[in-house]
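User: My instructor asked us to take a sequence, write out its structure as tokens, and then describe one feature of it. I'm not sure where to start. Here is the sequence I was given:
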Amino acid sequence: MPSPLSPQRLLIAVLATITVYVLWSFRGTPAHRGADIVMILASNDGGSIGKLPDFKDKVYQNRASYAQRWGYDFLWANITAFPVPLASTPHWSKIPLLRAAFAAYPSATWLWWLDLDALIMTPSLPLHQLLSPSTLPSLLLPPGTPFRGIFGPTEHNASYPTRRISGWEAATRFDEDALQMLVTQDEMFGINTGSFLLKRGSWADWLLEMWTDPAFVEAGWIFKEQDALIHLIMQHELVRNRVGVVRQRVLNGYNSEGKEEGVTGGGWLEGESEEQAKGMKWRKGDLVVHLAGCGTVEGSCDAVWGEKWGEREVEREEDVKGAEERRRTGEWGVEVGVDGLNRPGRS
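Assistant: Let's start with the prediction itself. The structure tokens for your sequence are:
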């Protein structure tokens, strides 16, 4: 008959059992939450910014290694594979692409759209931290902040009216369940769709259906799908009450200066004074810099891109290697079409 275990040996056995269980439970999963987030960007065949010869390789390294690090999924789509009837530019194609991404990644809760002309500058900052109920409330614009928009000018009447601040205000309290979309707004044009998060659900299905209404597509608005979203926010409470506006620098810092009204420090901007937290220009430690409009001066994109590439926090070598392996095996590609998006094995 075996002798009974001493209390010390029993404690060691229990701890060993717990350790094995924990390791088994988390086998094959990332060290941090995030498997329900899909990062999305798109470009056309041969698309680039400026004349940088290795542009696409750098973009892939920058985005895919970030997804690899935090356990997110990653999709780089060929925007020409997702046409919108009546649309004269590819701007509108992001909308059917988002719809297709929800179908292709059935376990995804959030899609993060980030324009091609943006760089992740602080890969050590996890996106899922932003979505945490303990972090997100401090990053939303203060209750009562009005939605901004320059809604009005069209291709046929390009004279800009006075920049408009709507009479509609952001939600007066934080409601995690109500927020289905997170965007930023700048002081120049209002809501910006260069970087935003969209949550799976019936509301997102409805929005993606309404967003490409032929009346919007043919309206001739200067900023295309961006103006359409501003219109939906300003005119429809069903949209307005589901959109959360986070501070500009949280998701969409620009390479130009500006100020936002009513912004205070806290959350990801912890430790900054109220004045420091204002503005829309990227600062060291912010997640993203969006080089919006860098092509307005010939050759300027090449210089700005090179400058910001040198300023970024360098990606971890193991994440770069992991991302490259997924590219080599075809799990993650560059400018994939509908066939690549719908291949078997996605979860």
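For the description part of your assignment, you could build on this observation: The radius of gyration is 22 Å. Try explaining in your own words what that tells you about the chain.
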